[in-house]
Amino acid sequence: MHVLVTGGAGFIGCYLTRRLLAEGHRVTVMDNFFRASRESLADVRDHSLLSIYEGDIRRYADFEKLPSGIEMIYHLAAQSNVMGAVSGLDYSFETNVGGTYNALKFARERSVRRFVFASSRESYGEAQYIPVDENHPLNSKNAYGASKLCGERYCAVFNQTYGLDVFTVRLANVYGRGDSNRVIPIFIDKALRGEALTIYGGKQLIDFIGVDTVTDVFMEIMTHEGSAEAVNVGSGRGTTLFDLAEEILKLSGSASPLEVLPAREVEVVRFVADTKRFRKIFRTSLPENPLSLLPQMISDEKKSGKC
Description:
Elements: E1 2-6, H1 11-22, E2 26-31, E3 50-54, H2 60-63, E4 72-75, H3 82-87, H4 89-109, E5 114-120, H5 143-162, E6 166-171, E7 173-175, H6 183-193, E8 197-200, E9 205-206, E10 208-210, H7 211-221, E11 227-233, E12 239-240, H8 241-252, E13 258-261, H9 276-281, H10 294-304
Parallel strand pairs: 1-2, 1-4, 2-3, 4-5, 5-6, 6-11, 7-10, 8-13
Antiparallel strand pairs: 9-12
Helix pairs in contact: 1-7, 4-5, 6-8, 6-10
Family: Belongs to the NAD(P)-dependent epimerase/dehydratase family.
Domain NAD-dependent epimerase/dehydratase: 3-234
Protein name: NAD-dependent epimerase/dehydratase family protein
């Protein structure tokens, strides 16, 4: 199958791209390299089934440069960070809303068979109950969540009006090797440097899910019928930031102190995914330990010599 991965050089995208190639699919990556490194796919750059296009989903003209024959789209490209959406409000809207519309328009005009949209748990806003199922009110608390919710609405419109086969997943906090500028890589970096680990507020309860599991889910979607309803993809287990910090300090052997600062108002405090719908749809197993990737991440960071 010929697959387009928008944001294919990004954190989740590069995992998915490698997996698609390993299973014999032709892959076209579209990325503007705003956050992603041009070296993230260096090991497969010369693969005969891979084409990389530097383009921006905010510009429809960049989609028109893509090759013909694309059968499926994984739309991962986004301004994918809550605080980044605060500091770059226009970029977040133009990318996550306008860019998603462009991707959907391209899918319709090219008669793409399936469109997979990576939405976020931020669409829900602050949890009214735990765990959060897919029927929870969608009350986005910040610009990032609002932009993802707008993307979901456009996906629904293209499905209902134009018959586009759409599969929407609401991702919890995805982490793993290669991630940056989010809480786990930040904590690991600071722990290995002996610097204070900063916790804002301290009441957070977070659902972490490994990027390897998310990649398995995305691959499984290739064999499923489209889902008219969004599906949570999370571990179904909550971790406090204090527990996360304690585990990182223990695994790294660090004596870094904890620093607790006032909460940042735009951040959702508590979220744990209800996984009942997920378990009905997917065969992919969810990990018993949502933090199982930490030891390898810490080992890799130590070997990198950056700390």
